């Protein structure tokens, strides 16, 4: 699906935002060299793991801050917005029409699970690195939802035509998508600068740092269910409608962009 092209991260300019990126890139490069030195020495894999544990949170904090400060984060706006709205549309069809409504009609549990995932992916043609990263984020979100939610997994694998997604799961998937989209993008950035000549099984510095950075951002994503609970009186919209109304706000908050400017774009 898409392309595996790496992404060097924002470059150019002399402002403070670019200096933050440059600083983060240097720290990633330095960490890769230090990990290699430890792996070659008496510390071995355990020493490298300890070094990564000691450094990852600090570097992840810088990475998250650099992403939200650099102008090129605008490259993520359109792909995240488009995929978020497509995700909501598919979740709504699942709520209204069940598994058949999103094309889950396979003859075997494995086939039905693949069809469920595919229903959320849409166009898988090659695109830009941000577009590819966001699509990877969608896939990760759906796979995590199946893995972590036993009722959903059982319904998909059995082809339960009566299954309707609970509102709380809808809201969890909405929030998880934004975290996964940013995480996939950050993995591409980290992978370009954190090079290890001696890769070690079970040592994934790229994933750990990107995950830690994404966790610092996911708390910024609004929750549609919480939004509804805060509204006085009876519900005036479906959970899908509430989520749609919050997409631009979620994008603006996670990327630290002006919400009104995004609405007008």
Mean pLDDT, as a whole number?
A: 83
Radius of gyration, whole Å: 20 Å
- The 3D shape can be described as globular
Number of helices: 11
Structural class of the helix and strand makeup?
Answer: mainly alpha
Helix content estimate: 55-70%
Uncertain parts: 1-8, 10-14
Main sheet overview: none
Number of strands: 0
What keyword list fits this structure?
single chain; 265 residues; mainly alpha; 69% helix
Describe it.
69% of the residues lie in helices and 0% in strands. The chain is mostly helical. α2 crosses α8, α3 (77-97) runs antiparallel to α7 and α4 packs antiparallel against α5 (129-148). It is globular and about 60 Å long. Residues 1-8 and 10-14 have low confidence and may be disordered.
List the helices and strands and how they pair.
Layout: H1 16-40, H2 44-69, H3 77-97, H4 109-121, H5 129-148, H6 150-158, H7 167-193, H8 205-218, H9 224-229, H10 239-255, H11 259-264
Helix pairs in contact: 1-2, 2-8, 3-5, 3-7, 3-10, 4-5, 4-6, 5-6, 5-7, 7-8, 7-10
Please outline what is shown here.
Residues 1-22 are annotated as: Disordered. The protein is 69% helix and 0% strand.
